[in-house]
Design brief:
The protein is mainly α. Helix content is 46%, strand content 6%. The longest helix has 22 residues. α1 packs across α2. A three-stranded antiparallel beta sheet has the order 1-2-3, with no helix packed on it.
Length: 131
């Protein structure tokens, strides 16, 4: 698995690419396993709470991230404050993160948060959700 790299070292344990975490895990494989466990718990929790009135807006996704990772990271549910990349992929730069997020969720809102895409061709839905 590719490691994360960022431009400031204060979110990682010294001389590692392992993010500081509430459990003090310093082994990448163990941390990744814990993240997968937290993701599964988070998805199960949110799936149980889904209703017809659920709106997949910015607040929903921030809460999803917070609830999913709060046991593991202090930054759960918060916008990043550092630039990071993983392998050859550079994530959205911090200075553009909030405005880009807001633009994406504005477009989702215009598409009624993709609520009616289940009746559309699968490739159209996949294209929208990938965006």
């Amino acid at each position: 698995m590719s490691k994360y790299i960022q431009d400031k070292n204060y979110i990682y344990y010294k001389n590692t690419d392992i993010p500081k975490n509430k459990l003090g895990i310093r082994d990448q494989a163990i941390l990744e396993a814990k993240e997968r466990e937290q993701l599964l718990e988070g998805y199960e929790y949110f799936h149980k709470k889904l209703t017809e009135s659920t709106i997949f807006d910015e607040n929903y996704f921030i809460e999803l991230h917070r609830k999913t990772f709060i046991k593991l990271y202090d930054f759960a549910g918060k916008y990043r404050t550092v630039n990071i990349s993983k392998g050859y992929i550079t994530f959205c730069q911090v200075r553009f993160l909030q405005q880009t997020s807001k633009a994406i969720f504005k477009k989702l809102e215009q598409d009624d948060y993709l609520k009616y895409y289940s009746s559309k061709p699968k490739n159209e839905f996949v294209s929208k959700i990938a965006f």
